[in-house]
TrEMBL record:
One of its GO terms (molecular function) is metal ion binding. The keyword Manganese applies. Belongs to the arginase family. Agmatinase subfamily. Pathway: Amine and polyamine biosynthesis; putrescine biosynthesis via agmatine pathway; putrescine from agmatine: step 1/1. PROSITE patterns: ARGINASE_1, ARGINASE_2. One of its GO terms (biological process) is spermidine biosynthetic process. Keywords: Hydrolase, Manganese, Metal-binding, Polyamine biosynthesis, Putrescine biosynthesis, Spermidine biosynthesis. This is Agmatinase. Binds 2 manganese ions per subunit.
């Protein structure tokens, strides 16, 4: 996919028309080939863009306006339906290109496996990379029913790549007993159930480091985000997730990229989930793109 071609579909509100002089790039990863419960997240990026038209361009939380940040909406990576390995390879190559041009990548999923090739590309540029991961699920399996390419495996793959002590997971409330045991044995940070309070404690440890942030929308309670593939009761509120994004923005960490995944619009006729995701992305842009 060429970076110098403007996306012909709907774009995220206030996106800049030119790639060359944009600091950040929004892109979609419309893949749900490996989900174990409900598909549909491949339609997430398009709907998040469409509902963004209802957003205010100004954030009263951060006192910034989208006018102040040049970000380019590159559209969706044209991933081959049903082919996870080729899709992963294409995503990694795509991010390699963005990073070579010194762009800040902002990804929209798609299932959570799409974060894995992004992290691989980020690690090539930032060998001291740390990951902040917000999710209902550990995503620390080696495979799902014998298949290593699964949306239940990306954080385990990332931890094996960059070192488990460099991965910080928050909001976790679901996973196999073996996953929690593995994390404890190798020194990986997992905060169960909560995000904001433990995040505040961890952020000073990441001062000055390059940090990639990956957010699975199901970290929210289903009351706040029913439109996702694997809903799990007991999650945080959208207010707490927004506050967590802002806490990262105020901290002395170098956020170098981010993604928001697992929005599946078909399961939420009210469009609450897509609208929440759109607002979260606005705050990520205004808080993390310098």
């Amino acid at each position: 996919m060429r970076f110098d071609e403007a996306y012909s579909g709907n774009v995220f509100i206030k996106s800049h028309p030119h790639y060359e002089d944009s600091s950040a790039v929004i892109y979609g990863m419309p893949m749900d080939w490996t989900v174990s419960y409900r598909p549909g997240s491949r339609f997430g990026p398009t709907r998040i863009r469409e509902v963004s038209i209802g957003l205010e361009e100004y954030s009263p939380y951060l006192d910034r306006d989208l006018e102040e940040v040049k970000f380019f909406d590159a559209g969706d990576i044209p991933l081959p339906f049903g082919n996870p390995q080729k899709s992963i390879d294409m995503i990694e190559e795509y991010i390699d290109g963005l990073l070579a041009d010194n762009k800040f990548p902002i990804g929209m999923g798609g299932e959570h496996l799409v974060s894995w090739p992004v992290i691989k590309a980020m690690y090539k540029k930032y060998p001291d990379l740390a990951i902040i991961h917000m999710d209902a699920h550990t995503d620390l399996r080696d495979d799902y029913e014998g298949e290593p390419l699964s949306h239940s495996t990306p954080i385990k793959k990332a931890a094996n790549l960059i070192g488990p002590t460099n991965v910080y997971s928050f909001g976790i409330r679901s996973g196999m007993k073996e996953e929690f045991q593995w994390a404890k044995e190798v020194g990986m940070h997992i905060s169960k159930f909560e995000v904001l309070a433990p995040l505040k404690e961890v952020l000073p440890q990441l001062a000055g480091r390059p940090v990639y942030v990956t957010i699975d929308i199901d970290v929210l309670d289903p009351a706040h985000a029913p439109g996702t593939g694997t809903v799990d009761a007991g999650g945080i509120t959208s207010k707490e997730l927004l506050a967590s994004i802002h806490e990262i923005a105020r901290a002395n960490v170098n956020v170098v990229g981010c993604d928001l995944v697992e929005v599946a619009p078909i399961y939420d006729p009210s469009e609450q989930t897509a609208n929440t995701a759109s607002k979260l992305i606005r705050e990520m842009i205004l808080g993390w793109v310098k």
